[in-house]
Design goal:
336 residues; alpha+beta; 6-stranded mixed β-sheet; 8 helices; 19 strands
C-alpha cells in the first residue's frame, strides 16, 4: 500500500513540474510548433533604393500567409497602376519599391495584423535609353535607377576605336533642358540637344560634363573621320582624326610606323574620293623626295588612302585594298 502511495506521489510531482515548465515557457514545443512558425521577411536588394517604378515594370511580392498575391509576377500597366487582390488597384508609378511596400502594408492592415511586404523588381522596362552609333553594343538599354553618361556608355560596351570626338544627347523637354553649355532646343520645341567631348567623358577631365541621363534620352556617338595608310608599311590601317584636324602625308606614314624593306616610295599615291561620286582620284606622291625635304608635304583629308606599293606591286593591289576599306573589313583602326 505504501509503495502504491509513493508511485502516485511521484507521478503527481512529475506532472506538476511539466505544468510549471509549460506555464513559464521553458517547455520545448517540439516539431509541431516549428511547422507553424511565421517565415522571416527580409527586404529585397535587387533594385536600387532610388529606382522609381513606372509603366511596364514587373514586380513580385512576398507576403507571408497571403497566397493570392505572394510570389506572383505582376506588371505595372501603361497608366502606372497595379491591380492587387485584397489591396485593390493602386498607383505604383512614381514610387520606389520601399514606398510601394509601405502602401501595400497599409491597405492589408484591414485584413491582417502587422502585415509584412517585400517588393522585388524582376524586370526593368520603364526607363529606356537609346545608345546609337560607334559603341560596342548599340541599342535600347534600361537605366535601372540613377546613371551618368559615362555609366550608360559603359552599359553599351564602351566606345569603339572608330568612335568620333563628340557624344550627342537628345532629351525630351519634359525632363528639363540638358545641363550643358552647348544645349539648345530643337526647332520643334520638344527636345533639348547637346554635345560633349567624348574624350572629356572617358578620361574624367570635365566631371560636370558627366551628366545624369534621363529616361528616353537618345545618346549618339558618330563614327570618327579616318585616314588610311596601306600597302608596304609596318602598321597598315585606319587612323582617327581629331575634331577639325588634318594630318600630313608624313604624319600618317609615321603613324603607320614607316615603310618596310620592299616598299617603292617613289610610286606611292593618295587615293581621294571625288565629291558626289563613289570613285576616287589618284594623286601621285614621291615619298622618297618628300622624306628628303625636296617636295611639299601634302595634307590628307578624311577618308583619304595613302597607298605605298612594293617594288613589284601592280595597281590592282591598291584597288583591292580600296574595296576592303569601303566594306569595312580587313583593316585595323587605331585611335590616337
Amino acid at each position: 500500500m505504501q509503495s502504491q502511495t509513493a508511485l502516485i506521489v511521484t507521478a503527481l510531482l512529475a506532472a506538476a513540474v511539466l505544468w510549471a515548465q509549460e506555464r513559464t515557457g521553458h517547455l520545448d514545443a517540439g516539431p509541431a510548433r516549428a511547422e507553424n512558425a511565421v517565415p522571416q521577411v527580409t527586404r529585397a536588394e535587387n533594385a536600387p533604393l532610388s529606382y522609381i517604378l513606372g509603366p511596364d515594370d514587373q514586380i513580385t511580392l512576398l507576403v507571408p500567409d497571403v497566397d493570392e498575391i505572394s510570389n506572383k509576377p505582376m506588371r505595372v500597366d501603361m497608366r502606372g497602376n497595379l491591380p492587387l487582390p485584397l489591396a485593390g488597384r493602386l498607383h505604383a508609378a512614381g514610387l520606389t519599391a520601399g514606398q510601394l511596400e509601405a502602401e501595400i502594408e497599409t491597405r492589408l492592415r484591414k485584413f491582417l495584423k502587422d502585415p509584412e511586404v517585400v517588393v522585388s523588381v524582376t524586370e526593368f522596362r520603364s526607363q529606356p535609353v537609346s545608345v546609337l552609333g560607334a559603341v560596342a553594343t548599340p541599342g535600347v538599354h534600361q537605366l535601372e535607377g540613377h546613371k551618368t553618361l559615362f555609366q550608360v556608355l559603359s552599359m553599351a560596351g564602351g566606345l569603339r576605336l572608330d568612335a568620333g570626338n563628340t557624344v550627342k544627347i537628345t532629351r525630351q523637354l519634359k525632363w528639363g533642358e540638358i545641363p550643358l553649355s552647348s544645349a539648345k532646343n530643337d526647332a520643334t520645341g520638344e527636345f533639348s540637344v547637346a554635345s560633349v567631348s567624348s574624350k572629356s567623358i572617358m578620361d574624367g577631365t570635365r566631371p560636370a560634363a558627366n551628366i545624369t541621363i534621363k529616361p528616353d534620352d537618345v545618346i549618339s556617338v558618330p563614327k570618327a573621320d579616318l585616314v588610311y595608310c596601306i600597302g608596304s608599311v609596318h602598321k597598315p590601317g585606319g587612323f582617327v582624326l581629331g575634331q577639325d584636324e588634318s594630318l600630313s602625308t608624313l604624319q600618317v606614314l609615321s603613324l603607320a610606323e614607316g615603310m618596310d624593306k620592299t616598299a617603292a616610295p617613289q610610286k606611292a599615291k593618295i587615293m581621294r574620293v571625288v565629291p558626289g561620286t563613289a570613285t576616287r582620284t589618284e594623286i601621285a606622291v614621291n615619298l622618297k623626295q618628300l622624306m628628303a625635304g625636296k617636295t611639299a608635304d601634302l595634307p590628307l583629308k578624311s577618308d583619304d588612302i595613302l597607298f605605298v606599293p612594293n617594288s613589284a606591286a601592280r595597281s590592282i593591289a591598291a584597288r583591292t585594298a580600296e574595296a576592303a576599306i569601303q566594306i569595312g573589313t580587313g583593316f585595323a583602326i587605331y585611335s590616337r
